[in-house]
Every structure is written in structure tokens, then in C-alpha cells.
UniProtKB/TrEMBL annotation:
Keyword tags: Dioxygenase, Iron, Metal-binding, Oxidoreductase
TauD/TfdA-like domain span: 26-285
Name of the featured protein: TauD/TfdA family dioxygenase
Gene3D superfamilies in the cross-refs: Clavaminate synthase-like (3.60.130.10)
GO biological process assignments: sulfur compound metabolic process
Gene source species: Siccirubricoccus deserti
Amino acid sequence: MSLSALSGPRYKAITEAGLPYETITVEKLTPIIGAEIGGVALGGPVSNRQMDEIHRALAENLVIFFRDQHMTQEQHLEFGRQFGPLHLHPAAPHEPGHPELMIIKADEKSVRANGEGWHSDVSCDVEPPLGSILYIKECPPHGGDTLFASMYAAYEALSDRMKAYLDGLRAVHDGEPVYRGMFANDGVADKPSYPRAEHPVIRTHPVTGRRALYVNRGFTTRILGIPPDESEGILRYLYEHMENPLFQCRFRWQPNSVAFWDNRCAQHRAMWDYWPHRRYGNRVTVKGERPV
């Protein structure tokens, strides 16, 4: 990837790596993933320099968190648009009049909660999302944490022989078994079909140039070009490997917190350990590109 092909925040995320931040504070949760960002109000005017540094913080930390934020629905959507066109979820319920604003809710009537298993959001799309921006307004008194895992770290921890084996392989990501009937309790009717795509098992991040594992329990059904039993065994190994706590951070939600994660190099899992209490918020998702 040539630096001359980059511009704006993408260029700055690479060229300014390691330099002090000027307009925001960045406090790492772990050495490899996660950082809490301070000094910025996402619902107010955000300067171009602050936005550049938020782009850079996301590239360096994979997932970034903001506390005590107050955004209207329109401000949430506008913040997402600073990173690209917005993605429409193929199945989930959304706020009235705002198809880009996904509803994230679980309460005493729920039979499931969003994101309970490890996954990368909507990886079944041909062009999966760049990232997701979750704004939680109501929290249970205890529990409801979200775990995030670095797929850079998971890839880098593989043996050289396993890296060589996986290089060039592709896998199927299928939304049909995931989304069919998933939101029936929310009054959402099923669509005739759901996305299905083939992606490389190892993808290269378009901004950082780093390599990451790109299979997940949520959507990946098989690796192509090898026998089904071998695919099942390799995927089982990779799932167990990538869920190593050494690759993870854990975020404890408070009301009016925001998490912004990069789906291209991180996976996440939401803990539903708070029933019958209520958790509510909205998610804005930014369109991505075809993985390479």
C-alpha cells in the first residue's frame, strides 16, 4: 500500500502513529486493544483535528470508548458519517424514520440479546462494515459488559506453519442461519433471503496494512477448498485460539457511554448476564469494503 494513495485521516493514522495526541486524551485499557477517549463531546462541535485524532485512535487501538456523551439521534448518525457512508442492517429493527439507526435492546420480555456470541458485525455482507458505533443510554445495575478481541494479535500468535496453511484460503460467511427468525419477537418479518459472501481467512487492513484473522463463530460456516471435516476442525481450532483472554479487553458500560469498534480487525461478544433488567441504546454502522 502506497502512502501516496492515502489521504486525510487514513494518512494521519499511519504517519502520526506513536506521537502524542494534541486534542484528545487516550488511555489504553490493555497494551494491544482498547482505549478510553477523553476531551471530546461527540454531540457538540468536533474540530477537524479532533476528528483526525479519533480516526487515528481507532486505527491504533481497534476499539475506542467515550464516557458521559449526550447525542441526539441525528448527531449519532452524523458522527458515523464522518467515517463513511452508513450501513443498513439486513435484519435488525431500527428507530422510526431512521433505517441506519439500529435498536439495541434487551429486557424482561427478551428471549435473546444482541451479540451474545463472538462475531464481527454482518461479516456475511459482500462488503462488510468498517465499524460500529454503539451508544448505550440505559444500563442494568450490574453486568452487561462487552468483550473485544484483537484479530491482529490472534493472527500474530499463530505458528508460521499455520499462517502458511491459512494464507490464500477463503471461507463462507452466511447470514441465513443467523438472521432467519432472529427478530420475530420484535415484530420484524423475515426477508426472502439474507446475505452470503466468501472472504479470505486472513485479511489485510486497508489503513494499517496489518494482517488479521477473519473468521468468526457468528457467520463463518466453512473454509473452501478443503474437506468438510478438515474445515470443521480448523475453524474449531481458530475460534478457540482467537478467544484467548490475552487478546481481549472488557468494557463496563455506564449510561451514555459510546463504543466504536473496527470490525475489520476486532471481534466482540456482549454478555447477557443481567436479565430481567433492561439495556437500551442505538448502533450506527459504517459501510466497509470487500476484504482482501
